[in-house]
Design a protein that fits this description.
410 residues; 12 helices; 31% helix; globular
């Protein structure tokens, strides 16, 4: 039995609104609120009422953050949204002080399988030097399969965006991708894996041709779980159109993309709300995408995040262009999922899916602080694409292969 399965089997899940958890959102909220001041969180707000949809969205403000000073959260209940926002803020707080454990080049240590291969990790264009030959800082991680020590590039662990590696900018795509929290380390790892697979799936889907993307449009008229149907009914009652695509990649873990927009409101000129979600259980994956779309839209409406750009508020309003008439053809029930509901099986399902797709090496850095009551993990997987829609992203091997198949060079 692997160390991660042994750890996950100690966690019992129960059905809550919106999914399965080891602790209820209310219990987590009661645990986190007293810790908020120590993490620099000055305010936790319910911003649901700034929109007319009614899907709960919250934000947590951390003015002295070294990355994003406003974190957002969503859920099917207000407690879930508030807890989600607090946990988002807590993740970046703990990752800001991630340890730098060693300074060496991959060429020095890679042959002994002691470190992740930089060439198989999300990087940016324009970074000079041979990334495997240049000494960089590393954080100590643990191989998710074998349990052995596995070093992870520090720039893929921390969230102190003030830092630069060496004399120049980092060669890696510095982001929060794969950073996750939970009531236990196993939960955090499960969430981190799902986020990495989701971002890779979205990158793969965006690289498809228009006709191929059209064939993934999800049917929303029947066959959906009640929890997802209720959220879609809220969109419909608010006069908001929701479109969903099945973006599940060759990794075969359920993933969805949702876009929402007002078609008949001439005063709503902001960008479309967009949400994506991934989870071994397809209901949870779809629900995450649906609720994240409402969170994305409220982020634009509130103007709270400090990474919003003016283009989100200046886009031309074209009612006909927003009205998508492509057919809904993908069937929700046909999307494969993990047949069981245990945390250990969910983690095994994701790791086995990655292995089958040719990505067998995954590492985790445990960023939890003893006594905090919250587990924080940074998960990194060799071979998965990063956030490919960022302008400076350097395509990895999977996207390059897809581009070559379509005859597009970058």
């Amino acid at each position: 039995m692997s160390w991660i399965r042994s750890l996950a089997e100690q966690v019992d899940l129960s059905r809550e609104a919106g999914g399965w958890r080891s602790e209820s959102p209310r219990a987590m909220l009661d645990r986190l609120l007293p810790l908020a001041p120590s993490m620099g969180i000055t305010r936790v707000s319910n911003i649901t009422g700034l929109d007319h949809i009614g899907i709960p969205v919250a934000m947590a403000c951390r003015p002295n953050s070294m990355s994003i000073s406003v974190a957002q959260g969503k859920g099917v209940t207000l407690d879930a949204a508030l807890t989600s926002a607090l946990m988002e803020a807590a993740e970046t707080f703990y990752a800001e002080t991630a340890p730098r454990d060693a300074l060496f080049s991959y060429d020095e240590a890679g042959a002994a399988n002691q470190a992740l291969d930089p060439l198989l990790l999300p990087r940016v264009r324009g970074a000079g030097g041979r990334v495997t030959a240049v000494p960089i800082w590393w954080s100590v991680g643990r191989d998710l399969v074998r349990g052995s020590t596995l070093y992870v590039p520090y720039d893929l662990v921390h969230t102190d965006y003030r830092l630069q590696s060496g004399a120049g900018l980092s060669a890696f795509q510095v982001s929060t991708n794969g950073l996750a929290s939970g009531a236990s380390l196993a939960e955090a790892i499960c969430h981190g894996l799902a986020e990495l697979i989701e971002r890779d799936a979205l990158s793969q889907w965006l690289a498809l041709g228009r006709e191929e993307r059209t064939r993934t449009r999800l049917r929303l008229d029947s066959g959906l779980p009640r929890s997802c149907r209720e959220v879609l009914d809220m969109y419909q009652a608010a006069g908001v159109s929701a479109r969903v695509w099945n973006i599940t990649s060759d990794v075969r873990v359920p993933a969805f993309l949702c876009l929402i927009s007002d078609h008949d409101n001439p005063y709503r000129r902001t960008s479309e709300g967009r949400g994506s979600g991934c989870h071994p259980v397809r209901e949870v994956a779809l629900l995450r995408a649906l609720t994240e779309a409402a969170q994305s839209r409220l982020g634009i409406i509130s103007g709270g995040r400090d990474d919003l750009i003016a283009a989100l508020y200046k886009g031309p309003y074209d009612r006909e262009q927003r009205r998508d008439i492509t057919p809904e053809v993908a069937d929700f029930a046909s999307i494969p999922e993990c047949p069981t509901v245990t945390l250990a099986d969910w983690i095994d399902f994701q790791l086995a899916a990655l292995d089958k797709a040719g990505m067998a090496t995954a590492a985790v850095c445990d960023l939890s602080v003893e006594g905090s009551g919250l587990a924080v993990a940074r998960v990194v997987v060799e071979g998965l694409e990063g956030i490919a829609y960022k302008a400076n992203y350097r395509y990895g091997r999977r996207l390059l292969r897809r581009m070559l198949e379509r005859g597009i060079a970058r």
